[in-house]
Amino acid sequence: MDNDYSVDLAEIASTIRTNDVIAIRFVTVGQRLLLDFRTTEIDGPMVRVVDPVKSVEERYRSLKQLRPRFALPDRIVSVWWPKFTTSLAESGVWDEVMRRVSDGGHVEAVRLADEALAELVARERALQRDAIRGVGFRTLWSASPSRR
Q1: How far is 118 from 141, CA to CA, in rounded Å?
Q2: Which domain range does residue 117 map to?
Q3: Contact in structure between 34 and 63 (CB atoms under 8 Å)
Q4: Residues 63, 72: contact at Cβ < 8 Å?
Q5: Looking at the 3D structure of the chain, how many domains does it have?
Q6: pLDDT, tens digit only, all 148 positions of the chain
Q7: Domain for residue 92, yes or no?
Q8: What is the pTM of this model?
Q9: How far apart are CA 36 and CA 13, in angstroms?
Q10: Lateral strand order in the sheet of 77-81
């Protein structure tokens, strides 16, 4: 069951259409989805799973390492996605991402973007399995009654 948070899909779609660099944060996985829609003849748009950073400055430095031929963007927009990663596709948000990626004209970028989403979904499912099995998680309530 997905979280019942209301998400302004129109606002998120507008953010994707109008900003060059976006970091999407998720409720279940610690990694971020970094979207950089800037292109050149050599470099296509980038959609990549990245680790979280401690500061905005660190995100700019990591982006410069990932995209050395690009100047630093004026801003990096952060989007909070309080739902499961699979709901990006179900909600139509992923269609907006893929539209921007395919508009760049780099076929390889489309494949890499799909792989990035698949990686996030796989990470999330692995965490869900671990939570069910109790691997790396602690239960708050026991199934057996406890003495008071």
Answers
A1: 33
A2: 9-133
A3: yes
A4: yes
A5: 1
A6: 455 567 899 999 999 999 999 999 998 899 999 999 999 999 999 999 999 999 999 999 999 999 999 999 999 999 999 999 999 999 999 999 999 999 978 999 999 999 999 999 999 999 888 888 877 777 666 666 666 5
A7: yes
A8: 0.86
A9: 15
A10: 46-50, 32-36, 21-26, 77-81
